[in-house]
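Progress narrative, work stream C.
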Amino acid sequence: MRIIAPYTQWIRSFGMRNGLENIPAAARSYKKKAAAGAALGRDGVQNAQEIANLIAAAQAGLVDIAIVGSETLLRGDLSEDQLLGYMSQVKLAVPASVLVTTADTYAQWLAHPRVIAASDVVAANFYPYWEKVPIGKALCSLRAQYYKLVAASAGKQVIVSETGWPGDGNPQGAAVAAPANATRFLLEFVSWARANNVTYWYFEAFDESWKAAYEGPQGAHWGIWDRNGVMKPGMRAVFTGQTAPIDCTPCGGGTPSLGFTYVPPMGSHEWIEGQACHIDPVMAKLVFYINVAGNWWVKPYDNAVITPIAADGSWSSQYVTGGSDDAATQFAAFVIPNGYSPPVLRGSPTLPAELYQAAIAWKQAARSNNSISGTITDAANVPAGGVTLTLAGAASATTASALSGKYSFVTVPATGTGIVTPSLSGYSFAPHDRAIAFTGGASTANFTATAPADLGVAGRFTPDVVAPKGTSVYTLTLANSGAGPATAARLTITLPPGITLVAVSTTRGSCSPGSPIQCGAGVMLPPQVATITLTLRAGGLGRYAITSVAAAPEPDSNPGNNTLTQQLAVCVNRSGCETPRH
């Protein structure tokens, strides 16, 4: 408490037994607000003790917000009625000034409107990392989820009761646990929360090693401070007033636009996909119609006419929900303001003029029986979006793959041939292109994309000048800042005569103290980092060049930063270094 007190206004706790019941009093001793939580599970006896201690602390004036259970609905430990019963018990017993709520994921809150109604505030957990959102889209994803919950909370305050990003551990899809990502997420999230007056509790203060046994290695790396109470590098920026620019408008500024990124071939039941650009998804929504045999129908259903727009502007809609929907020849999508109620069309020969008048942006597309479609993925079957595909030959056209990796040319000739060629800067594709013979139907051409890695190495000596027979610690960082993974990443370190290795260690993989020294870091997803620490003993006077070379089986987009040569000076004193000998 003493360590974190200068940096926060609130303390949130997660239990009221085994010593945790003392946290509210400790928070008060540092003049902090306390959000005290009762840990509820399937043990009724323990639950009763947790609730009793929470009530006692609130009655003693030590609690500002009483949190009755944390993620009990998510885990299925309590039913909704059981949770509401505990919340009612607390609300009847504590002073009226104490706000009563529970804490759970935003999705659980949306699924339990009775719990929203019973709560004084809505305390919701948001974790883009667990939802496999890449760091570049994490804050905007959280923002979209937050405002969706705000809209469902009937004017009640929504508090971010947990969010964070681990500094190390296993990747979750495109979400990579790394120090750079942890510091970036903290700064971006706090910048957004402060700018929008969002109350939040950040998870968490300190690393907790024991959590690795429950949620994998990342469980031990959620802290702003390490387990020894030392603030991690880069975390201090958020406490010194620094901010990060936040722009959650897909594609940046510009005129609102809408497009189709994937139109399934005729007869397919796949979902149609599109992209909204220069439109804030929080402020708008989408309605979608199909034309079958000359008549327009709203989709997907008469009682569910709204298609949500994701934080990155992408959207997808189920268009085959009955009848001859898979024979639709035209599609129309409209981005509309949140307050507008679109018409429910059930076989209308035209699209009403009011749709075009109300729309922020709109787009129509047609398709024929003749088409080319396919999917672009990497070797791990992860979709590759944003790939440009060019069709040449009997028909000429250009399109791009959707975030799902799918693409389509929806109108091609019934005869002739064409060549489809994918391209994306730095990537290679297999096959390089595909020749298609048009036969009056749907053709398929799939591709595998290989994303480039970008290994780089940096280093420093501590100290960088040593006396003869002295020692220096050489810290090297091997990082992948490319677009794709580096498998079997390794660093080869060559020591010159006169420099002796005392010890070597690494934060990823293992090192072999041979000649040269070989350190294997395994699979490195961007922006993962391996830190290699060498303790070196110097020989006689001079300057000794140490060379480190990074390598991996994949092509490297920037081989210029793969080799590092640095000199360790061995002198009687810093001003007396001799002319280099080595």
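Work stream C, second folded protein:
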Amino acid sequence: MKLRTALRGAVAIAALAPFVVPIVAPTMADAETQTGERGRDGEVKIIYWQAPSIMNPFLSGGTKDAEAASLVLEPLGRYDQEGNPVAFLAAEIPTIANGGVSEDLTSITWQIKPDLKWSDGTAFTSADVVFTAEYCMDPDGGCAQLAKFEGVETVEALDELTVKVTFKEPKPNPYLPFMGGQSPILQAAQFAECMGARAPECTDANFNPIGTGPFTVKEFRPNDVITMEANPHYRDPSKPAFATLTLKGGGDSAAAGRAVLETGEYDYAWNLLLAPEVIANMAAAGKGTPVSAFGTLVERIEINLTDPSADLPEGERSTLTHPHPILSDGRVRKALSIAIDRDLLVEIGYGQAGRATCNVVPAPAMYASDNTDCMPQDVERAKALLDEAGWTDSDGDGIRDKDGKKLSLLFQTSVNAVRQDFQALIKQWWSDIGVETELRAIDGSVYFGGDPGSPDTFQKFYGDVGLFANNFDGTDPEAYLAAYTCEKIPGPESQWQGENINRFCDPAYDELIAELGRTGDLNERGRIAKRLNDMITKDTDIVLPLVDRGRVSAHSNSLGGVILNTWDSELWNVADWYRVK
């Protein structure tokens, strides 16, 4: 069996505004396989080479944490494999046509399915939804998903099964709060004492959340393994088909791929960040099947605009108090960007599962800028920019300096073979223009973990530049782009939570985000989103996009019902998985 070289595109723009959104049912596996007793198929085993460190996505910006949590915690609605919104805890997706979205676009009203139960047997009500909003919007809490609540004025319970979200001004895209795996509902009773600054202290709730999803946590061992059991109160008595689930974390991408494709030890392997020929060789063993799709996942370098020096007092490193002594100069950032050969990175790291990009938002097409400013590689221009910025090699050692300071950077990322290859190549290209680069690889479980006490998280950003990939739920990038507004900067006062790890703060950018939030015309939304993309890429180079990545995962040949989804959690339909007989 060989890996397909052409990846399926999954771009849907029909869901971009409430007045045009189609309502579709979730894609289900064959009905014959979905009947029978809950737990009839025994155990299912999942492997993530980045181990989850918390089961609360509001306290982590890491994909691996949000996806692990999605097995237990659910939103009101999700996005299917084509990017279409589908109801989960809600009875239907609200629209103007069905009365769920107000004509003036200032509110969205959700009707909750009746008789839903939490895994402890208590009733799920609108009070839990209201509480979740209050939890994330608490100014002292440092919610990692605060961008989902951009422009929200109030969230109120109209009755036990009805929730109304009111926006400060017309919101053409009201599907931000409570939509997708990054914005699930927490049980108010369990998290009541975990508001504000106390949120990270609630270890039991954060590790063992009570949920409405198909599984419940039996044991959570941070950065290692999670064992789960079927939720006895799940709303479909025939699901999940598996009685237990094990999610093993850690190791590396190659080991995860082998565990599914070669040995058959595991049933599902997430995000195989491996060279195409490596995956093809593994798949030839015949134990499993790679699955792939393009979405909005972009491998990029993030630039720290603040000083991460260990010489600064704790609490002042990587904060606005101290601008970065090198990277505050846009000419240096531009030089770093154009010194990179993105086409070679694609060839070495992804083959046809990747494409070079200068955009942080590569899709859908209506939101993708025509920005090609970062290509092709231009070493001579990069050198000229550094000359212009005053960085010269005064002592002939090959490293530029200025005012007695070397042009030296700490480049960090998570442990992964492809990323370490990228680091090595980029280090050489930067060396060619006179930049000294120290490489650091951090275990992904820690790097993407969000522990406010750890010095190694990507939010704390105690490096100069960082490499990782990111994407957004659904097909509309509003919340994703809003992550770069001033209020999303992580720091001690927000428990080091927040998505604006660059510490970028531009009132003009914030104003344009607000304009996007109140703009209904799809063409105009596309124009604004492209402008926002360009502001953080080619205009300022605070983000250096590298590769528009196709997501490649794998499942065993004995696992049925798997539908790869690049627009939501990969584990979005785990309730529909079953064992092929």
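The domain at 294-550 is CATH 3.10.105.10 (Dipeptide-binding Protein; domain 3). No further action is required on this item.
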